[in-house]
Write a structure and sequence with these properties.
This protein has helices spanning 2-22, 311-346; strands at residues 37-46, 52-57, 63-68, 73-77, 83-86, 94-99, 105-110, 116-121, 127-130, 147-148, 155-157, 160-163, 168-172, 181-184, 190-194, 198-203, 209-214, 216-217, 223-224, 230-235, 243-249, 255-261, 266-271, 277-282, 286-294, 298-300. It is of the alpha+beta class. Strands 18, 19, 20, 21, 22 and 26 form a 6-stranded mixed beta sheet that branches. The chain has a 4-stranded antiparallel beta sheet with strand order 1-25-24-23, with no helix packed on it. Strands 2-3-4-5 form a 4-stranded antiparallel beta sheet, with no helix packed on it. The longest helix is centred in the last third of the chain and has 36 residues, at 311-346. The protein is globular and about 50 Å long.
Length: 347
């Protein structure tokens, strides 16, 4: 009887600890200096003036693909900066792009009057339309928020992780909010739910909650490294603060480092398979590659002269300017009124 009571208490304690992990305020762990990271800008690529809608690393980390509002997809070799593939103009913006698992094809989602999936050969640049809906996995967040792991052993639908081969439940999966972005790592070990304010990392095999990642944002689609160790996401900030991109340690939810940018100028992000580099796409057509280095510090996206401000930045600028002008005019009128009043009194 005594043993049974001990077991019940232990079970209650474990259950309570798990419940506490899932509920309550999201508190980021303390970050030691040896774990902090900073970003060093390595390369800047530019082949269009139109907004970059998506950027991706190839599975081996040697190539970067970008798709843009000008209807073209491009692939650069990182070590040389050479464009190895530039697709034909599709006549409509391309919103999503991703490499196939073998790195030989680039999968894209072309918008317009007739949205469609297009597949490009990385070497030849030849492309063709496909009706295979499975290419959407890993390319874009499915409309029904259902995803399958790369090896097909795990699948997720809102609220549950299960084995698609047997339909057997593995574990209930809870998110801080509904409609969180589901992500499996390429090595099938990690599963994440990206969401504003709080994302969550799970063990893909058991469904156990591994970490809560605080202050993530849904400004951009989040990305998980191929080894499942890191999450790249926009950082939740005040609307008037600069935009920020960060990487989190998926083992405990620590925010390791940040890149700031003018307002909402960054339009796409990705993280390399080993988590050692990130790539960002901008609204002015620039694609930047950053190296993640040990040590504290915060990098900033350079703001090139002549670059157009985003609509939000213009709005904030106009508001601040209007307030400043109003205050100045009020002060001027007040001063003039006081001077005239003194003049009248002397007369």
């Amino acid at each position: 009887m005594r043993c049974l009571a001990v077991l019940l208490c232990a079970s209650f304690a474990i259950g309570s600890a798990y419940a506490q992990e899932e509920s309550g305020p999201c508190v980021p762990p303390e970050l030691s200096s040896d774990r902090a990271r900073h970003f060093v800008l390595l390369e800047t690529f530019k082949d269009t003036d139109r907004e970059i809608r998506d950027v991706r690393f190839s599975p081996d980390g040697g190539l970067i693909a970008a798709v843009a509002n000008d209807g073209r997809a491009r692939i650069w070799r990182i070590d040389t900066g050479q464009i190895v593939m530039r697709s034909q103009d599709m006549g409509s913006p391309i919103w999503h792009g991703a490499f196939s698992d073998d790195g030989r094809r680039l999968l894209t989602y072309v918008t317009g009057e007739r949205a469609r999936f297009y597949v490009w050969d990385v070497v030849s640049g030849e492309g063709h339309e496909t009706q295979d809906q499975s290419v959407s996995y890993g390319l874009m967040t499915p409309f029904d928020y259902r995803v399958t792991s790369p090896d097909g052993t795990r699948a997720y639908e809102p609220g549950r992780l299960y084995d698609p081969r047997t339909q057997a439940d593995v574990a209930p999966i809870r998110s801080a909010i509904g409609n969180a972005t589901p992500l499996f790592s390429r090595d099938n070990r990690a599963f994440m739910l990206g969401a504003p304010f709080e994302s969550r990392a799970f063990d893909a095999e058991t469904g156990g909650l591994v970490a809560r990642l605080c202050n993530t944002s849904n400004e951009l689609p989040p990305r998980v490294s191929a080894n499942g160790r890191f999450l790249a996401s926009a950082v939740e900030t005040h609307p008037r603060d600069p935009m920020a991109i960060g990487i989190w340690d998926a083992s405990d939810g620590a925010l390791l480092g940040r890149v700031t940018a003018p307002n909402d100028s960054i339009s796409a992000i990705d993280i390399s398979p080993d988590g050692q580099r990130i790539v960002t796409g901008s609204r002015d057509g620039r694609v930047r590659v950053w190296r993640v280095e040990i040590g504290a510090g915060e990098a900033a996206v350079p703001f090139e002269s002549g670059a157009a401000l985003s609509p939000n930045a213009t709005t904030h600028f106009n508001i601040r300017s209007a307030i400043a002008i109003a205050v100045t005019l009020f002060a001027a009128v007040l001063v003039v009124g006081l001077v005239r009043r003194r003049t009248i009194k002397r007369d």
